[in-house]
TrEMBL record:
<keyword id="KW-0560">Oxidoreductase</keyword>
<feature type="domain" description="Thioredoxin">
    <location>
        <begin position="21"/>
        <end position="219"/>
    </location>
</feature>
<dbReference type="InterPro" id="IPR036249">
    <property type="entry name" value="Thioredoxin-like_sf"/>
</dbReference>
<comment type="function">
    <text>May be required for disulfide bond formation in some proteins.</text>
</comment>
<dbReference type="InterPro" id="IPR012336">
    <property type="entry name" value="Thioredoxin-like_fold"/>
</dbReference>
<comment type="similarity">
    <text>Belongs to the thioredoxin family. DsbA subfamily.</text>
</comment>
<keyword id="KW-0676">Redox-active center</keyword>
<dbReference type="GO" id="GO:0016491">
    <property type="term" value="F:oxidoreductase activity"/>
</dbReference>
<keyword id="KW-0732">Signal</keyword>
<dbReference type="Pfam" id="PF13462">
    <property type="entry name" value="Thioredoxin_4"/>
</dbReference>
<dbReference type="InterPro" id="IPR013766">
    <property type="entry name" value="Thioredoxin_domain"/>
</dbReference>
<protein>
    <submittedName>
        <fullName>Thiol-disulfide oxidoreductase D</fullName>
    </submittedName>
</protein>
<keyword id="KW-1015">Disulfide bond</keyword>
Amino acid sequence: MSRIATGICAAVAVAAGGYWLSLSNSNPAYPLISSAEAQEADLDTSTIVEMTLGAEDAPVEIIEYASYTCPHCANFHTGAYKQLKKDFIDTGKVKFIYREVYFDRYGLWASMVARCGGPEKFFGISDLIYEGQSEWTKAGGPAEIVDELRKIGRLAGIDNDQLEACLQDGTRAQTLVAWYQENAERDGIQATPSFIVNGKPVENQSYDGFKKLIEDELGS
């Protein structure tokens, strides 16, 4: 299971060729963006849309914390998640909430592309990102990787101008990072994928494991 790099000190900047995030794993006392920096930048994390699937009043709520560059997260999304969606999310038994975790600039770029089409396209784009993870994460350097993410966005029907606007929105990037940190600190997230089922922390499970957890919550 991948560990969250809590010791990352980051500086965010917008470059002509796209959005760039410089990272330094130097001191575990420093988060990606400190609360003081967030206040100075006037970052309003309430502007970040919570990405959800399923009935709002479903009896079971599952929150997933995941990184687009995490292989275990890709395994979950291309495996157990699809069956969970069919059996429990689409049937109104589970409300599913997806929250991004940012290990690196690539995962942040992927998130910005996934969110570029709004809530309606978010989960479809996320599926494409996870399905192609082994390819786009190994495309080469930063320029090649962001080009592969652009291709995924275009495949989902987002035009070039909209993609560039999303990728070059530095304030949005900082706000996403601050939002992620608030969530992770509040819920004590230390690894990905991590899950919270009706308020209780749960480690990554097989489909059968999740099925039993959900059925226990439903009283089945």
